[in-house]
Amino acid sequence: MARHQNIRNLDYEAELEEYGAFSDEEEEELSPEDQVRMREGTAQVLEALGVEAHKVTKAQIEESLWHYYWDVDKTITYLISKYIDPPKKPAKTAPPKTAPKQDGTCILGKGSGPWWPTSLSRSSPVALCEPSLTTSCQAAIASASRQSFAHLFRDLPWGNIPPERQAVLIPPPQLPGGLLGGSGAPPKMSKLQQLAAARKKKAEEKSASGEVEQTQVKMTELTVNDNQASKENRPLAGVFGKRVKISETTAQGRIPLTMAEPTRPEIPQAQAPEASPSQHQEEDPIDPEPAVAPPKAQPSAFASTLFGPSSDSPKRRPREVFALPYMAISSYSPDAFGKPSPDDVVLAAQAKVATAGKKSANVHNKKGSSSADGVTNQVSQLKIDDTPLPKSRNLNVLSEFEKQKGKKTASFVVVGHVDAGKSTMMGRLLLDLNVVDQRTVDKLRKEAEKIGKTSFALAWVLDQRHEERSRGVTIDIATNRFETETTSFTILDAPGHRDFIPNMIAGASQADFAILVIDASTGAFESGLKGQTREHSLLIRSMGVSRIIVAVNKLDTVNWSQERFDEITHQVSGFLTATGFQPKNIAFVPVSGLHGDNLVRKSTDPAASWYTGKTLVEELEASEPSARALAKPLRMTISEVMRTPQSSISITGRIDAGSLQMGDALLVQPSGEKAYVKSLQVDDGEPADWAVAGQNVVLHLSNIDPIHVRVGDIVCDPAKPIQCVDTFTLKALAFDILMPMQVDVHRGRLHAAGKIEAIDAILDKVTGKVTKKKPMIVKPGTVSRVRVTLHSKVPLEAGQRVVLRSGGQTVAAGLLE
Amino acid sequence: MADRRRINGPVGTTNPPIYDDAPEKQSEGVKVARSRPANVIRRMYLKTGVTPSASGSAYLEIESSGNGGSGLKLSCSVHGPRALPRSTPFSPHIILSTHVKFAPFATKQRRGYIRDPIERDLGTHLETALRGSIIADRWPKSGVDIIISIVEGEQDRETSKAQGIEAWDTMNALSGCITVASAALADAGIDCVDTVAGGVAALVQDAGDDAAPSIVVDPIPSEHEKVLAACCIAYLPTRQEVTNLWFKGDLPASDMDVYTQLIEKGIQASKSANRVLVDCLNETVG
């Protein structure tokens, strides 16, 4: 209630008085020059009014003068219409006053002071409640504040919309084809349709631009700061005009986006093209975008191939004449047949060389050997740091070996046609010698029964791989060992299948002598003689094995027929003699591998009582192992690489030549990396300090990365390393027709691809004399000198025996020269 | 031991060819200076509607710098708008998915077939740039795939690798991607508020360290001694809006204006590119 009372009692007059007094105060504070102007103006008005002057008071004149800011004419007009000759409408409210000091402010505000919120926050309250401060300082603040407000409203057009903002309404364009997407090509039109469409478009453009112009004219008429605007609008227009101006100046200096603005890119449809003159001025003089030349490039060769030539480039006419394809080749010449053909050239050259053939061959050999000498010299000059590890005992291995009075060691390879019973015979041998116990064999037999191959149980003693067992054939060399009273033997059980001949070669290269197993059962022997019996015996002979024991197997299936044995003996000995075995080095034993007759013990079968010769083991013991090359530099072919607890790299193999001891430095070829012997095991896994040629050893290496050691590599003495060569000459015994062709070169585990480069000569088998030079081909069974090139360098040296194979067939075997 | 049991392969071997990888000329020594004015972008070739099977497609080629080096070649195809798969949750607006992939042979360093982080980055930037221009709510429950193959990367390959300036090339690639994608979107008829184009500006230092750095538009890093900073901008000219801004590098701490100027120049480059874009679209329509 109390508050209502208060409001009811409020004295409006008194309240308003305050404001009036306030404005009066302001008038009293006119500056001296204003007062002078006021006086002059009043005098002028009074003079102009003349007689009518009494109708107006001096105060009225002063007020209106102030209002019109000393515009005498306007004041007079106003006074006449208001007081002297008033129209029907009486009092007109005084128009709003503006601050008197407007003239200089915009210049003041232009460059000074921060233009954004700091000034706004500081000066805005002042500006709001005291709009008419008169001191210059205050005016400056006020103007600054106004400027910041101007900036606030900068984006609002307030009626004077710049032409570029004026909206142009464009009817939405018809989508090509009426559907979305597509390759962008317009739908197909007939010519008539196109013409009509073009006309329509033109007309639309014209009318649209006309309309736009009209609107623009109207808009400029509307613009409030125009000179022709009515006088009542003037003050308002001034204010807004200034605002706009300020915003423009501010923008010019500080707002980057507006400044960098060049001409707008044209909107595709018809559109007022002329930019406003002010904008042209604003444009950067070095603006890179002249409206004329957009940076459009010609398509590159790639693009023009992809999309076809651009429409404006002249279309290439298809060629009407087609050149023959070979005419374009640079080497083509129409008179090619005028000259002698390449074959003629070759023949002529050969004819010429034939006379000087011998000489050139010699020269070639000499050159080869001299270069090899040079290399060896250089290599020997190289100082290789092969000081053995401190572990080495520096033994004299050879004297140690002589001092040692142990058993002889010998290794033999078991070869023969597939399914001749090689593995089974060796299994039985091991069983009878108690190397394998009966329990193991029983277990194997049980397993064999499971897959229905009971007869293979003994073979499984050696064939331990899963695949070997499931297929029932030996695939890779299996090694095992046994001892008799005098000798310790290493068995190398070779695969009989012809697909695995490389493995057999690997085995044969490690053997001192061989057991050739022959299947005596009807038909099997004959097929074997044509097959691997023949190939194997050729191979082992060319691998340098001279002693051979022929085990005629499976004689129990023919009831120990002596006739069969004799027949086989006759045929095989004839064949072996022809192959090059000496008759005294061939022995025949009738055996039964499955039952063990004549292997370790004599056959108890009465049907076999006709045989009184030695058993197989006795024959083995009677065999003298071939002489070891103990004094030669160390050579050992790696036949297996493995990890063992002793070392991360352990290698096995048979030492071909030389000797080694613990702590020795070794060189692995062809990688050329050096390693040290950490420790070694000889033969049946006994740790030893040294090993000599002929022994099968396990070497535990150190100081070498496993990637440098591979099966087939050669371990040698770093002081006298084996050379890696890719070309060599070979004295080869041909098993098949030889001509310059692609071959595989096998040497033990090592094998490399290469080709026969040339056949130098055919040699006499016995005397070794040249019988024919430069033959085209070599017939089977003849000896020739061939030159072989390999695709990669492999460690080979003279005196080594290699086998050449081609297309899964053994074509030749021979000795490196 | 290698398996040489049953399969007897051909006996002969062929040595694989070995290419000499060493550069023929020392490319660092030979430096081609920039021949264009500092505020002019390279000329480019743009063509829409190149892939018939796509809803919209475009091909962009920026001409080489003139020293025999290769330019930038981009191909973009737009598939969609098409319905989203049923499993996708409701979306009131179109779902953009962008894929940028360098062809394996596009740069000196061969690219893999799986997108690497740089390509993923480019895709994200591109998506941001385009999202600002597409009127996404016109196409609810739909998606659009934008696939860009960079057929040939920027630079003549030797220099790029030798100077380690591949990072700056990525910016040029992005600006090309934005322009070509915008053209392809227009070709596909997908509603956009404006055509968006990419522009690159860089603060470079030429001829020794003592010279004052200058700002150039559409930089080729191999033409300059050193690139201090660069920015790639996607800009809508009629709306005066920047939809994507990628800035990289160090600016001199003394001058705060440089950043603004750099962006200004980037916008300028973008406008120039937009001009080509609009021209190309006009050609197609008219």
UniProtKB/TrEMBL annotation, chain A:
Domain of life from the UniProt record: Eukaryota
Biased segments, Polar residues type: 301-312, 368-378
Reactions catalysed according to its record: GTP + H2O = GDP + phosphate + H(+)
Residue spans of biased composition, Low complexity class: 185-197
UniProtKB keywords: Cytoplasm, Elongation factor, GTP-binding, Hydrolase, Nucleotide-binding, Protein biosynthesis, Translation regulation
GO terms for cellular component: cytosol; Dom34-Hbs1 complex
Main location: cytoplasm
Protein name listed in UniProt: Elongation factor 1 alpha-like protein
Organism of derivation: Neurospora hispaniola
TrEMBL record, chain B:
Exoribonuclease phosphorolytic domain sequence ranges: 41-190
BP term (GO), one: U4 snRNA 3'-end processing
GO cellular component, one term: cytoplasmic exosome (RNase complex)
Gene3D superfamilies: GHMP Kinase, N-terminal domain
Pfam family, one: RNase_PH
Superkingdom, natural source: Eukaryota
Residue ranges, annotated region (Disordered): 1-26
InterPro entries attached to this UniProt entry: ExoRNase_PH_dom1, ExoRNase_PH_dom2_sf, PNPase/RNase_PH_dom_sf, Ribosomal_Su5_D2-typ_SF, RNase_PH
Cellular location(s): Cytoplasm; Nucleus
Keyword annotations of the record: Cytoplasm, Exosome, Nucleus, RNA-binding, rRNA processing
Primary site of residence: cytoplasm
One function term, GO molecular function aspect: RNA binding
Family: Belongs to the RNase PH family.
Name of protein: 3' exoribonuclease family, domain 1-domain-containing protein
Native source organism of the sequence: Neurospora hispaniola
